[in-house]
Amino acid sequence: MGYDLHTKYILFAAVEEVLKFLVFIIIALNIKTNNEPIDAMMYCITIALGFAAMENILFVMGPFANGNVVAALITGNLRAIGATLVHTVSTACIGFAYGYLFYKNKFLKVIGLGFGLAAGIALHSLFNIFVIGGSSMDTLRAFTWIWGAVVIMIVLFEEIKLVRPREV
Fold it and tell me: Which one of 52, 86, 102, 134 is separated from 123 by 20 to 30 angstroms, measured CA to CA?
């Protein structure tokens, strides 16, 4: 039984988001400097940018290795705009979900991480489906809504600054 292309694009997005999620869990979740709600978003964004940079380098190296400098430049430019943004926004969902529940109990934080991961996978999957598997118009739409998602994430970034412990 084979997978259709959309399933593959969703699986690729899920693997990437889970990897970034695991880096956050292993490295950033329990360190001393992760002591404010906004820190989780900052760490997730940093992880996403590192991941996107590595992925972009790997994608650009293919055309360079084949001597196609123009294709490498075009690929690099498009990936810098699209892939970097989708990685940043999708992983920031995890940081926002955790940061929003920063002062809550461990169970709610785990639920928040699950929702954040699911949202990140959904965003990343949609982007992959539209950009990789779609038409030129689909790609333009994907770039438009990913910029919209960036604006929303900036607003959520401001919201996370307002999260405070509940006063008794």
Answer: 102
